Automatic annotation (TrEMBL):
<keyword id="KW-0349">Heme</keyword>
<keyword id="KW-0408">Iron</keyword>
<keyword id="KW-0479">Metal-binding</keyword>
<dbReference type="GO" id="GO:0020037">
    <property type="term" value="F:heme binding"/>
</dbReference>
<keyword id="KW-0732">Signal</keyword>
<dbReference type="InterPro" id="IPR036909">
    <property type="entry name" value="Cyt_c-like_dom_sf"/>
</dbReference>
<dbReference type="Pfam" id="PF13442">
    <property type="entry name" value="Cytochrome_CBB3"/>
</dbReference>
<dbReference type="GO" id="GO:0046872">
    <property type="term" value="F:metal ion binding"/>
</dbReference>
<dbReference type="InterPro" id="IPR009056">
    <property type="entry name" value="Cyt_c-like_dom"/>
</dbReference>
<feature type="domain" description="Cytochrome c">
    <location>
        <begin position="46"/>
        <end position="147"/>
    </location>
</feature>
<feature type="domain" description="Cytochrome c">
    <location>
        <begin position="191"/>
        <end position="304"/>
    </location>
</feature>
<feature type="signal peptide">
    <location>
        <begin position="1"/>
        <end position="21"/>
    </location>
</feature>
<protein>
    <submittedName>
        <fullName>Cytochrome C oxidase, cbb3-type, subunit III</fullName>
    </submittedName>
</protein>
<dbReference type="InterPro" id="IPR051459">
    <property type="entry name" value="Cytochrome_c-type_DH"/>
</dbReference>
<dbReference type="GO" id="GO:0009055">
    <property type="term" value="F:electron transfer activity"/>
</dbReference>
Amino acid sequence: MKTSLCLLGVALLLAAGAALAVALRGIPHYAVPAVAARPAPAATPAQLALGGQLVRANCAVCHRNPRTDRLSGAPLVDVFPGLGRLYAPNITQDRRHGIGAWTDAELAAVVRTGIGRDGRFRVIMPHAVHLSDADLQALLAFLRSADPLVQADATPTPAQAPSFLLKILTNTVMKPSPLLPGPRPTPAPAPALAYGRYLVTGRYACFECHSRSHETNQALRPEQSAGYLGGGTAFHDRQGRRVHSANLTGDPDTGLGRWTPAQLAATLRFGQSPHGPTRHPMPVYSAITDEEVRGIYAYLQSVPRLKTTVPK
Ligand code: HEC
Ligand code: HEC
């Protein structure tokens, strides 16, 4: 009796100690990964068009502030409230409140791994693990460009208020992604299948929204994500209503099996699907090329078909 009480006491003390350590440690810090930074040559118009498309379809979803219409930051609305009050920071060119003073290598490191220039792990933000080097370069070129979306804006970013749960998660399962050994070339537009795989898993990361849930996605091995491309991840539209991502596999009844390439093109380019206008957060890729649509179509029709019932 006495020994078991003693053991219980020790276990309780250890648990309390671990909880205190997590609370004090907060969101962990890591060594900032050294991304090979090549001197950026002057951006070409094609690079800026691609970079703009990547930033609008991805970064802007979280970082765009509707009041300033710049990337001066916004509260995160789509995350589970138990994770705390979180904010996508100001990433305009402002040197104090934005990323004007960050180097390309520091930006590349946070975008690829989630580790900020001060070493603190940046939570929630997706990691562009499979993005090609040239696409990353285009993205950074756009962030440095004269586009109105990224011009310096002095909106301060409120302090993050992560919950105890988020602190536990980031001290256990939520980790930065490793830097994959480079170089990472962009595949050629032909064969369409390999190109499409890159677009769906790397450049546009469609799989991150279109698989079963963010929790079960496998950033390093996308195809091993639960319900890969079968849809079902839950979001909110701009009015706060529930929206679920669609099944993109070739299943003829619940997926895109009966779709034509032209229907996919209209959905991606204009947000007009055969079922009507697509809702937030489905991006509109207004500058997507015919070659890209061809690749995405070929790849989506080739992946294992899943029959899923996604709530309407
Ligand atoms: C799902 C929402 C989301 C998306 C998409 C997203 N971010 Fe973030 N980003 C965040 C959040 C939230 C933080 C802050 C997290 C923290 O402080 O722990 C952040 C932090 C950052 C930071 C660090 C800024 C600072 O001052 O600490 C940079 C730089 C950044 N994001 C750039 C980008 C770029 C570039 C993209 C597009 C490739 C992008 N983000 C896409 C949510 C997002
Ligand atoms: C940020 C998350 C997100 C990303 C990234 C994303 N989607 Fe979507 N997508 C959605 C959501 C949510 C819906 C459902 C919208 C609705 O019901 O109105 C959707 C709808 C669609 C539809 C319409 C299906 C239908 O039956 O009407 C297609 C097709 C589609 N997405 C393809 C893609 C492709 C291809 C990519 C990558 C190039 C992609 N999506 C990237 C979230 C996303």
